[in-house]
Amino acid sequence: MSFRVAAASSDGKFINQHFGRASQFYIFEIRDDQYHFVELRKNVPPCGGGEHDEDTLRKSVNLIGDCRVVLVNQIGPGAASVLNSRGIQSFRVQNFIEEALEKLISYRN
């Protein structure tokens, strides 16, 4: 069984972006006990000045719509609810992407 994970990161190494302010997502595929990088997806952040634009939020969710998990530094309850309604689990993580993916694999097994 395989699934995709989106990581909100500015540098591709550390999960360091708030979902609503993420300008890009690194997409990984997890298959069995391994993961590999798939692609980098650029995003227009839906949050600005403490408020979010519903249309832009929907576009951000659609951008990672093929993922089952998104790893973020922070996420608001509204965005988490929209993601959850699309079957995407959000996890607040302050760690290196590789370590977070390895933990995710160990929890899924």
Automatic annotation (TrEMBL):
Q: Which Gene3D superfamilies match?
A: Dinitrogenase iron-molybdenum cofactor biosynthesis domain
Which PANTHER family does the annotation name?
DINITROGENASE IRON-MOLYBDENUM COFACTOR BIOSYNTHESIS DOMAIN-CONTAINING PROTEIN, IRON-MOLYBDENUM PROTEIN-RELATED-RELATED
The protein, known as? Dinitrogenase iron-molybdenum cofactor biosynthesis protein
Q: What is the lineage of its organism?
A: Bacteria, Bacillati, Bacillota, Clostridia, Eubacteriales
Dinitrogenase iron-molybdenum cofactor biosynthesis domain residues: 11-105
- Source species: Formimonas warabiya
